[in-house]
Amino acid sequence: MSQRLLVVEDSKPIATVIRQIARSLKFDVVIATNLAEVEHLLSSDTDFFAATIDYALPDALDGEAIACVLSYGIPSIVMTGKMDDETRQKILSQPVIDYIPKENSQAFLYLKRVLHWQLTNHQNTILVVDDSSAARNHVVELLKRRNFNVVTANNGLQALDKLAQHKNIKMVITDLEMPEMGGIELTNEIRRTYTREQLSVIGISGASNGIHSARFIKNGADDFLRKPFCPEEFYCRIMQNIENLNNITKIQHAANTDYLTDLANRRSFFRAAEQRIKEYVSKTVPYALAMIDIDLFKQVNDNFGHEAGDQVLKVVALYMRKHFSSGLTARLGGEEFAVLLCGLDTDNLYNKIDDFRRDIAVSTIPIGENTISITLSIGVVFDSQESLPMQINQADNALYLAKENGRNQVVVSGSELED
Ligand SMILES: Nc1nc2c(ncn2[C@@H]2O[C@H](COP(=O)(O)OP(=O)(O)OP(=O)(O)O)[C@@H](O)[C@H]2O)c(=O)[nH]1
Questions:
Q1: Are 282 and 388 in a shared domain?
Q2: Tens of pLDDT along 334-359?
Q3: pTM (2 decimals)?
Q4: Strands ordered across the beta sheet of 98-101
Q5: CA 334 – ligand 1 centroid, Å
Q6: Whole domain around residue 195: which residue ranges?
């Protein structure tokens, strides 16, 4: 179900722009043009995800609508044409998400980013570490206003426990001086385990001595805030660091993933497979490495076009996910796929791979007005202790035999020698 956004704005053109932005983020929009309308609306309907509020309305020239909307617990973003310090202080003294000066079109791009963060911040977990409950609660309140998921700790030692318990923590905001373990030592400990690409650390200190920011940064922190900080600076630093982390995640995903099927690509398959095979061999877990190739795929492209070919590749990827949910699946290139999976024994592994082949062979793939049927040839190596490139070579040779023998079959590496 769509979230609802309340837009309090007396200018029709500006309300239209905000409505377009909100709709692009899938919000349902309700517009009110003055304070009386807002009061009337909220007296019977308060189910809003957030609100944007124009500071000056015809019947509320001095921001009175802000307190009204906030009193219903609706997270609010203030849009203002007034830039003076007094207005800014007045707005920031209230628990608003943000305020945006309506200087130029950048204001609306920024509004879109703020709304997007508000919708997605719950995916980011932040650990707040401070021995002062007042200071800790203040930071937690600011983060919750922005919809972050928050975990807390009283000192560095507790923080390390929390990091071990909550694997999805993306950022640690830590005070400097704390009993048992302070912020610098905690940062140091964190960097033994987590890289800056995995976890961001922001140090906080009230000490007037500037040396602490440098100490935090030199010990592996990404940023520093000096107390007392204003909410604007706090949010800017948090969002910048979270966005950096998210961008790194996106770049890593793009570098490791096949763009068409979203399976692992050759590079990431090799890295992950080598790791898994080491574990299987050391624990003597039965495993299989299979090379999978679509039969006569060129004919699909020739008869139905390249886009149809792409569609078939995506469908094969879907079936791989369905059949090998715990395996490591990849598109190595072209119409060639690979899977590494462990199981109870060789028979069990063979059956899983052959079930996948059969499932594809009896399925039809809708392409526009047509349906296409395809088959797969598969070469498999079981429990090999050879290097990964050698295993792939052996599975490839078995795959070649599957093609030679008439396609649509699984050939086990070495089985041809037994015949
Ligand atoms: N649509 C599409 N086609 C691709 C892609 N990558 C490779 N191909 C096509 O895959 C086809 C592979 O053809 P061949 O190597 O001749 O093999 P085949 O037709 O599958 O025949 P066998 O392997 O002998 O069964 C070529 O036509 C390539 O252009 C892709 O990303 N998308």
A1: yes
A2: 999 999 999 889 999 999 999 999 99
A3: 0.76
A4: 28-32, 4-8, 50-54, 76-80, 98-101
A5: 6
A6: 124-251
